[in-house]
Amino acid sequence: MKTHRAGKIPTWLAGLALALLWPVAADQNDDRLDGLFDKLQDAPNASQSAVIEQQIWLIWTQAPNDEAERLMDRGMQAMRLGEWTLAERLFDQLVEKEPKFAEAWNKLATVHYVLGDYNESMSDIEQTLKLEPRHFGALSGLGSIFARLGQPAAAIRVFEQVLEIYPHSQDSQHSIEQLQEQLLDRAI
C-alpha cells in the first residue's frame, strides 16, 4: 500500500480551492480585491504571484448578475472558438446592459484588438481603467497596442505601470526587454 507524505499543498491547488469557496457574484468592486492586490505587491516570487493573479481574474470575470454572466460566458466561449464577430456582438450587448462592469469592457477591448481595431480597443481600455485602475490586463493590452503601432517608448511606459501593480508580471518584464532592444536597434 502506497502512503502519501503530508506536505505542502501546491499553490495552484490552494488557489483553485479558495476560488471554489468564494461566492459567484463579483466584479471589480468586490471587497476581496484590495487584499489580493496587497498580496500581489508583496508576493515573493512569480509563482505565488500567478496564483494571486488567477484569483483576481476569477473575481473580475464574475458578472454582477445572471444575465450578464450568461453574456460573459457566451462571449468568452466565442473568443475561445475564434468567433470574433459573435464575441464582439455579445460583449457590445454586455457593456450596454452593464456599463459599469470593467471586465466586459476589457473583453470587448481584447476582441477589438484581435480584429485590428486599435482605436476602439484603446477606447474600451480607457473605460476599463476608469472602472478598475488596477486592471493590469487592460494595461498590458494598451502596451501591446503601442508596440504594434511602432511606439516602443510609450509601450514601455505602460508595461512599467503594470509592474507597479503586478511586480512579478513576467509578460510585462519580457515585453519591456524586447521593446528596449527595439529602441537600441533604432539608435544604432
Automatic annotation (TrEMBL):
Q: Which parts of the chain are TPR repeats?
A: 102-135, 136-169
- What PROSITE patterns does UniProt report for this protein, alphabetically? TPR (PS50005), TPR_REGION (PS50293)
Keyword list (alphabetical) reads: Repeat, Signal, TPR repeat
Q: Where is the signal peptide?
A: 1-26
Q: Would the keyword Ubl conjugation turn up in this protein's UniProt record?
A: no
**UniProt-listed InterPro entries:** TPR-like_helical_dom_sf, TPR_rpt, Ycf3
**Annotated Pfam families:** TPR_12
The protein, known as: Tetratricopeptide repeat protein
